[in-house]
From TrEMBL:
Residues 2-343 form the FAD-binding domain. Residues 482-496 have a biased composition (Basic and acidic residues). The keyword Nucleotide-binding does not apply. Residues 453-505 are annotated as: Disordered. Its cofactor is FAD. PANTHER family: BINDING MONOOXYGENASE, PUTATIVE (JCVI)-RELATED, TRK SYSTEM POTASSIUM UPTAKE PROTEIN. It comes from Actinomadura barringtoniae. InterPro entries: FAD-bd, FAD/NAD-bd_sf, RIFMO-like. SUPFAM superfamilies: FAD/NAD(P)-binding domain (SSF51905). Pfam families: FAD_binding_3 (PF01494), Rng_hyd_C (PF21274). Keywords: FAD, Flavoprotein, Monooxygenase, Oxidoreductase. GO terms for molecular function: FAD binding; oxidoreductase activity, acting on paired donors, with incorporation or reduction of molecular oxygen, NAD(P)H as one donor, and incorporation of one atom of oxygen. This is FAD-dependent monooxygenase.
């Protein structure tokens, strides 16, 4: 019997397999595509939090080395009348791209197209002794008391557990009787990937992660996929029957010669599954939630799902937690998705058409007259879209059945040495006790973990020295879960805290 079968081999399915492999648990990822689809990049922002999770698997550096846009290339969004037109305003510090070396994070964000991330994850799965990729399509499944029978391209497989990462048309979601709740946005959008040699040298605004085009005739945005000649653009309010070359020329602001490589019409969706789990089947990524892309949260939320359900399944399958631990997945992850959908929808409420002004297309006097009010409107409306670390890093699992009172947040990060050693690098693959290990409660916690068979690493951190630094613990200690969230802050009975954190209580 397969310990975990994962339906869907996109980034979330592959991440689930790698989290399980991180804990020594075997899985099979079932995916109909034999190769990564490179021409429709869709997600382009990998958040600082996702990069921290990739660092746990040793992949953050690999992704940065292979990303065509170095993280230092730009952290700015430029708003202009066209790619080659007049600049209106700009916003800096976007998407956590400016956080390299900052104590706030172990990894800054990274602009990189989703297919490249997926390829790196595929290679890591292929190299793992615990994970494998199976070419096939999940067609149905049925839970019973001992496992899950899964039909894969006409063949039946048996698994102890299934994680459905099979997207918006999820067979897994249907199998557990879950359904989406929410709505689609009425406005159409049209993505184009194109090649335009020599265009980069003509852009007057310098490097940017996004160039927003505030043009009454054709609003949208443009960005680079690499530092050569490949670009992407989104026409806002553009239907799928549009001429892609004309759209590119309108957003660029010139009748350039461009080779259209791919097109992708779409509408934003604000959908959340009414339930995330059966008894042995769980939903993650787009099978559980979909949100508008504005703010770059979509696949990043799915990676958070993968890590959360992955370490739980590993704990159960490795024998140090009961199946009750799995019941904490939905109450922790569903509220995060709900908040993400709401914030992305708020970002979508003000797009390029809402902040443009016909005077911007006029002569210099008309442009100068309109520019201050438009710039102010952009900065008010879009600040939270580009500066969303309160969501990306600040979500908590407070209120979870497996989090003790007063805990639930991500362990505050800091660098331990100038050479790049992170506090997170000192955390174990199971639980980690961080803080002043000379305290009596530390010895009690270590003994309780040994008695209960719970894997526990320790990191002695006696408290702030001459330089101030984050102090996550309220009583000198913090019990940190495998996903870097704090389960307990050292107050009360350590054994009870460990039992609660692992689903025994």
């Amino acid at each position: 019997m397969i310990p975990v079968l994962i339906a869907g081999g996109g980034p979330v399915g592959l991440a689930t397999a790698l989290e399980l492999a991180h804990h020594g648990v075997r899985s099979i990822v079932v995916e109909p595509r034999t190769e990564v689809s490179w021409l429709r990049p869709r997600a382009k922002t990998t958040s600082a939090r996702t990069m921290e999770l990739f660092r746990r698997w040793g992949l953050a550096a690999v992704i940065r080395e292979r990303a065509p846009l170095p993280v230092a290339w730009s952290d700015e969004a430029v708003f202009a009348t066209s790619l080659l037109g007049r600049e209106i305003t700009r916003i800096g510090g976007c998407f956590g791209l400016d956080l390299a070396g900052d104590d706030l994070v172990a990894e800054p964000g990274q602009q990189v197209a989703q297919p490249l991330v997926e390829q790196v994850l595929r290679e890591a799965v292929a190299a793992s002794p615990h994970a494998s990729l199976y070419a096939g399509r999940v067609e149905g499944m049925r839970e019973d008391g001992d496992g899950v029978s899964v039909t894969v391209s006409g063949r039946e497989m048996r698994a102890e557990y299934v994680v459905g990462c099979d997207g918006s048309r999820s067979v897994t979601r249907s199998a557990i009787g879950a359904r989406y709740e929410g709505r689609d946005d009425a406005r159409p959008n049209f993505n184009v990937v194109f090649r335009a040699p020599g265009l980069a040298e003509r852009v007057p605004h310098g490097p940017a992660v996004h160039y927003w085009v505030l043009s009454p005739s054709q609003p949208g945005l443009v960005g680079r996929l690499d530092l050569a000649d490949t670009w992407w653009c989104i026409g806002q309010g553009v239907a799928g029957d549009a001429d892609p070359l004309l759209l590119v020329r309108a957003l660029v602001g010139d009748d350039i010669d461009a080779e259209v490589l791919a097109t992708d019409p779409w509408k934003a969706r604000m959908l959340l599954a009414d339930r995330y789990a059966g008894d042995r089947v769980f939903l993650a990524g787009d099978s559980a939630h979909q949100n508008p892309p504005w703010g770059g949260h979509g696949f990043n939320t799915g990676i958070g799902d993968a890590v959360n359900i992955g370490w739980r399944l590993a704990a159960v399958l490795n024998g140090w937690a009961p199946p009750a631990l799995l019941r904490g997945y939905e109450p922790e992850r569903r509220p995060v998705a709900e908040r993400t959908i709401a914030e992305a929808a708020q970002n979508m409420a003000t797009l390029a058409p809402e902040v443009t002004d016909p005077r911007l297309a006029g002569d210099d006097d008309a442009f100068d007259e309109a520019r201050p009010s438009v710039a102010a409107a952009v900065e008010r409306a879009k600040d939270s879209e580009f500066h969303s670390l309160d969501l990306v890093l600040g979500y908590t699992y407070a209120g979870s059945p497996h989090i003790c009172d007063g805990a639930g947040e991500r362990l505050p990060h800091r660098w331990l040495a100038p050479g790049g050693e992170s506090l997170y690098d000192r955390l174990g693959r199971g639980f980690t006790l961080v803080g002043d290990l000379s305290l009596p409660a530390a010895a009690d916690t270590i003994k309780a973990a040994a008695d209960e068979g719970i894997p526990l690493d320790t990191w002695h951190d006696p408290g702030p020295g001459p330089d101030p630094r984050p102090a996550p613990e309220s009583n000198g200690l913090a019990l940190v879960r495998p996903d870097q969230h704090i389960a307990w802050k050292g107050e009360g009975d350590p054994r009870a805290a460990l039992r609660r954190a692992t689903g025994h209580a």
